[in-house]
Amino acid sequence: MAIEKTGEGLNRVIGVPGLALSIVNGVIGSGIFALPAIVGIAMGAFGVFSYIFCSIMLAAIMLCYAEVGSRITSSGGSYAYVEAAFGNFAGFIINWLYFFGWGILGSAAVTNIIADSLAVLFPVFSHPVLRGFFFFVLIGFIVMLNVRGTKQGIGFVKGITVIKLLPLLGIIIFGIGQVKTANLQWEHLPSLKTFGDTALVLFFAFAGFETSLGVSGEFKNPKRTVPLGILLGGITVLIVYMLLQMVTQGILGAEIASYKDAPLAAVAEKIIGPVGATILLITAAISCFGSVSADIMATPRSLFAGANDNMFPGFLGKVHPKFATPHLAIITYGTLIFIFSVSGGFKQLAILASAAILLIYLAVILATVKLRKQASPEKTFRAPGGLIFPFIGIASIIWLLSSLSKWEILSTGIFIAAVCVIYFVMKRFKK
Questions:
Q1: Distances (CA, A) of 53 to 117, 158, 203, 301, 333
Q2: Which of 5, 45, 87, 353 could cross-link with 186 by S-S, CB 3.0 to 4.6 Å?
């Protein structure tokens, strides 16, 4: 069967399984290997139920993404949705928040986690020069793979996702029999502040699904692929997270505070011995590698879409004549991740990432509400319940934003102000 091309010159090659696995890969990243301890220490056995609460918040946001994603089928993901609803200026801000505040800084941090995990087993990865060379080879490989084709990129993501999930599923399957029910009993509810702080951490552990929607211009039948892919991916993530928390809490109990840096490695060691900890360290590195590969596959499409709208330099909108991929956007994005990975400057700016993704989610929900008022030429997915889910999403985001520190709010405001200046300068220059 012939591969369908979009009006942007890209190939529609990603189906429901590809999107669902990409979401699972993007969300279940490095955080899951430390998350059970963070939740367990703060909330005890009640932590298992906190996942349900956070999943409800994220489900509301996911439903809005599913609805607007089935309507707007061009590349760009969050940027494309906001731009369609509110115009170029709002789209420009969201694209910068996503591309820099969430994408580059996040992937640069995760790339360093890969080297840190491997350095435990192979100290050579602590050497600055060899570490930089490792980053160059690692990122270069992912860039080359995605330049050669989205089909190859999504195939690689599928493989990484399976490899990453197998050890985690092994912990669930072989560890559930060693769970002590006494460790899962809770005597009192956590305070509202404790719950809010933990929910903020959990929320970001669930974040990342929107990255996979950056390749929305390459989905087969997006009106079906987007809602089904988000649904399957989201349910899978929730089940894996809850079971891992239950097993970790059930096996470690009060000792969980002693393993706050690597609780899953501690559980694996108790299940199968010292080799278990080694397997989990390697799995953590593979998990981070998968997250970066998914990001480099998806986020450059925001640059590509922005360039086609004259918001970024025109060369970023070029499509490879042979592979039909936005090759220059992919290479540029990978290069920036490499620069921040080796410079370490991202550590001071990474504080922007948390506020950035919340603002992006808020903008997409508002875009969903606005676009509902416009007639769609074809039947698209619509979230049930009218404005119930958008309201839940907006209320959740405002609540989480209120948990940010003054420094985080100030840093985000300065960044947005700088982006606004860039926009108006570019607009004036074009005139």
A1: 31, 28, 10, 32, 35
A2: 45
- Is 4 contained in some domain? no
Is the Cβ–Cβ distance between 317 and 76 less than 8 Å? no
- What is the number of structural domains in the chain? 1
Q: How far is CA 238 from CA 9, 57, 65, 77, in A?
A: 36, 12, 17, 22
Distance CA 245, CA 402 (A): 26
Q: Is the pLDDT of residue 397 over 50?
A: yes
Q: Which residues pair with 14 in a beta bridge?
A: 219
- Over residues 199-230, the pLDDT tens digits come to 777 776 777 776 666 555 666 776 677 778 87
DSSP-based three-state secondary structure for 5: strand
Question: What are 77's two structure tokens?
Answer: 């993901």
CA R_g for the chain: 21
- The answer as to whether 366 is a domain residue is yes
Residue 5 belongs to some domain of the structure: no
Q: Choose the most confident range, by mean pLDDT, from 9-13, 61-65, 311-315.
A: 61-65
Q: What is the DSSP letter of 311?
A: S
pLDDT tens profile 66-98: 788 778 766 667 888 898 889 889 988 988 888
Tokens representing 167 are 């050890």
CB 273 within 8 A of CB 281: no
CATH number at residue 111: 1.20.1740.10
At residue 6, the pLDDT reads 47
Domain assignment present for residue 2? The answer is: no
Q: Which helix (H) or strand (E) holds 11?
A: strand 11-12
Q: Distance (Å, rounded) from C-alpha 422 to C-alpha 16?
A: 38
What Cα–Cα distance (Å) separates residue 7 from each residue in 23, 66, 148, 326, 327?
25, 22, 20, 14, 17
Can you tell me the distance from the alpha carbon of 280 to that of 312, in angstroms, rounded to the nearest whole number? Answer: 41
Question: Smallest Cα–Cα separation from 357: which of 106, 100, 105, 98?
Answer: 98
Instruction: Answer yes or no: is pLDDT of 365 > 80.
Output: yes
Domain coverage including residue 32? 10-430
Dihedral, CA atoms, 304, 310, 314, 318, nearest 10 degrees? 40
